[in-house]
Specification:
Blueprint lengths: L2 H17 L3 H8 L3 H15 L1 H16 L1 H19 L3
Helix pairs in contact: 1-3, 1-4, 2-3, 3-4
């Protein structure tokens, strides 16, 4: 594995562990694709820094467990905004 990818994996993992960010948020923060971030934290990080990889797995597992709530909240905000923007 190339050194810059190894370092990137650790930086992304630390960011997710510290902030509780989702893969999508981390991808946006680092300017990468979701696929790259996911591969970095799920495959590469386990080889480079196993303890950090375990922390990241816990965060991602939690994010996945509340994914349906986030989606529902986003939909609710969308329709509330449409109601406010509608002409009276």
């Amino acid at each position: 594995m190339q050194e810059h990818i190894r370092e990137r994996s650790i930086r992304i993992g630390q960011y997710i562990a510290d902030s509780g960010a989702t893969v999508r948020e981390a991808a946006r923060h680092f300017g990468l694709s979701k696929s790259s971030v996911h591969k970095d934290v799920s495959v590469r990080l386990a080889k480079v820094h196993p303890s950090l990889a375990a922390q990241v797995r816990r965060v991602l597992r939690y994010n996945q467990s509340v994914r349906h709530l986030r989606g529902g909240e986003a939909t609710r905000r969308k329709y509330c905004q449409r109601r406010l923007d509608a002409p009276s």
